[in-house]
Amino acid sequence: MKTIITGSDRSFLNVSELKRYGGLFKYLSLRDVFVRYKQTWIGFGWSIIRPLINIVIFGCLSFLVDKSQNFTDNFLRVSAGIVFWQLLSTAISEVSNSLVSNSNILTKVYFPKLILPFSSLLVCLVDFMIAFIIFLLMFIIFKGLPPWQIIFLPLVVIYGLVFSFGVGLIFATASVKYRDVKFILPFIIQILFYASPVFLSSKFILDLNIPAFLKVIYQVNPLAYFLNAFKYCFYGTFESYNALYFFISLGITFLIVVFSVRYFLNFEKSFADYI
Amino acid sequence: MIMGRISIKVENISKKYQLFHREKNEEASLLGSMASGLVNVLKGKRNKSSHEDFWALKDISFEISQGDRVGVIGRNGAGKSTLLKVLSRVVKPTTGRIEFEGRMASLLEVGTGFHGDLSGRENIYLNGSIMGMTKREINARFDEIVDFSEVEKFLDTPVKKYSSGMYVRLAFAVAAHLNSDILIVDEVLAVGDASFQKKSLGKMETVSQESGKTILFVSHNMGQISALCNKGILLNKGKIETEGNIQSIITRYFNSGESQAQTQTEFACPNDPSKNLAITKITLLDKNKKNVRSFAHDEEISIAVTVTKNSSLKDIILGLFFSDMMDKKVFSVQLPVSDKFDIHNERVFILVVPMATFTPNTYRISAALHIPNIQMIDDRPNAGSFEVYDNGSDFYKYAGLDIGMVFVNCKWEF
Questions:
Q1: Is the residue at B410 inside a domain?
Q2: ipTM > 0.90?
Q3: Do B268 and B231 share a structural domain?
Q4: Domain residues for B268?
């Protein structure tokens, strides 16, 4: 096997190489999971407590603002939003941090760097699974078994992860050179939180007396579709579904992922010089 | 594996870094610099700085055959580490081309990716996979790794609880069991206590003699280099100064650049008639009668002392002693010289110190002419100095350890 390195090398998506580093992917993912709650007293209990605190805060808040539903229904709906939102937002921030937090490896050994953002996804999924199981139990207790639409759930989760991965990858690449990302990111995630139907329903927002262009932005927000699709899996109705906006947000997701991977690969070879 | 095939081919590799310089009229205080930073942000100006190109490597070309063990030598900042980083694909060369054959593993650091919260066992798998081993390869060598590291009892303890010695031993153990055709090692052996250094170096030797593995090795310890390597590359300021046989490269390295050695000293011939004899010159010579300042430990050292006679005097002794830089005397020699002058008024006495006398270190020579216990005629303390470097002695593994000042060829009986 011959390897050639030249000064004008550009990275490309080398799937066979990524496969060869499958073991590394596995161990890095497991490392993140094992280390996540090390030296905490509550341990993985945190993956329940963190969404729980948010559910209580935003459940109460949405009940005060939007009185169209009864208390339990409202809490379940907010829970669904928060549990899925937590997956998307942690995925975005974990992927964004994945390069800088592994700079000690990045500067010492060669491997396809795409492994790092990829491997940071597992820990988000584990957190999500724990919170999700609790949510599912609550749902079954109060509402009974979910409808047949629940079979779409894996698709929705994967779609959401792909989007978060793309967004995170852009930030991850930028943060190699500009640590400003670390400071901007929490605000962006906060804005996305309020710009998506996490605790207030899409219907409530669209009925508000706000400029029309804001409503358009709100509707093409891919996150809005993931969250509503997630709720669709449990309630069987797709809140404020609009085929045009759906395809636009699908297109946005696609563009973000393609752009992020290209941006990443363009700079991959200089990471060690800048990080 | 066929020996002699090209394993690594490097063509015109250069690596440029940019050095940023702040403008001189910078505020000295933290508050001042924060204030000026704020002003710059408000004015929409970036922090004023100029940059300068710095070539860490410039037009490096060489070829390494399969099975060669190449020592990369150079002073600090010569570009050794950059070269290894470029070769191991951690950083991209600015220009040039590298071709290599087979699997490459690089050890720029021991314990890359070790996580303090993970146990020794988990870290073996994590670190092994970072180094490019598959799970099957790690499984196959797991027991060997644990054996070598001597941390079996603590395998399930988080490594942050390890002593630094244990940590390093485990890290090196993983690295030493890498499976690759090319191995790149950057001075990682300078770790651990003396006995572990010896063990790890022994392991490196075994590894290097395994089926035609190509090795690139950076170290400041010439003893290690000459024991491990058969070829050498001498780097100087990002360029290759010479390459070739390791011994000639090491000699070249020691005889280039600045050094505190003082290899030739001339003294003015005293006009004072009371000084009827004087030492006028002391020169250090290698076996080819060339004036050098560093010697391999297994090389003869010649010291030429020129003595000038004004009038005759009886019972005069030429004495020389050697001392280390701490002024601890190593040994002395003497020679009666009165009867050695026949018709000449000047004579050169050459003292030949047999090979393998001094252990690697820097030594000073002092010389004197005297009549024992009666008169000091000419005293020349610290008139010259020289370095002895390790050329692969039995003791090279104990770099930095005090092994005494002389080698003595003793006999064992058992």
A1: no
A2: no
A3: no
A4: 264-398
Q: Are residues B91 and B231 in the same domain?
A: yes
In a domain, B193, yes or no: yes
Which pLDDT score is estimated for B1? 42
**Are residues B159 and B213 both part of a single domain?**
yes
Record: contact B109-A108, CB cut-off 8 A = yes
Q: What CATH number is given to the structural domain containing B109? A: 3.40.50.300
Same domain, B235 and B299: no
Q: Is residue B319 part of a domain?
A: yes
Spatial separation of the C-alpha atoms in residues A186 and B233, rounded to whole Å: 50
- Asked if the model's pLDDT at residue B43 lies above 70, the reply is no
Closest CB to B130 among A39, A107, A109: A109
Based on the fold, state whether residues B95 and B223 are members of the same structural domain. Answer: yes
* Res A137: pLDDT: 92
Domain presence at residue B54: no
Chain B residues within 8 A of A272 when measuring between CB atoms: 85, 90-91
User: Would you call B112 an interface residue with chain A, using a CB distance cutoff of 8 Å?
Assistant: yes
Instruction: Kindly determine whether residue A7 and residue B96, on different chains, have CB atoms separated by under 8 Å.
Output: yes
pLDDT band at A153 (very low <50, low <70, confident <90, very high): very high
Residue pair A98/A182 in contact (Cβ under 8 Å)? The answer is no
In chain B, what residues touch A35 (CB-CB under 8 Å)?
Answer: 115, 117-118
Q: Strand order in B329-336's β-sheet?
A: B294-296, B375-389, B361-371, B317-324, B329-336
Is the model's pLDDT at B393 over the cut of 90? no
Residue of B nearest to A6 (CA): B97
Region B190-215 average pLDDT: 75
Max mean pLDDT among A9-13, B91-95, B381-385 falls in: B91-95
- How much is the pTM? 0.77
Q: Which residues of A touch B132 (CB under 8 A)?
A: 21, 24, 109, 111
Of A23, A104, A272, the CB nearest to B134: A23
In the prediction, which pLDDT does A126 show?
Answer: 92
Residue among B89, B93, B122 minimizing CB distance to A7: B93
What is the model's pLDDT at position B283?
87
**Nearest alpha-carbon partner for B174 in A109, A19, A115, A26:** A109
- Tell me which residues of chain A, numbers 3 to 22, contact chain B at a CB-CB cutoff of 8 Å: 3-7, 9, 21
- What are the φ and ψ backbone dihedral angles of B71, each rounded to 5 degrees? -95, 130
Q: What angle do CA B355, B357, B362 make, to 5 degrees?
A: 110
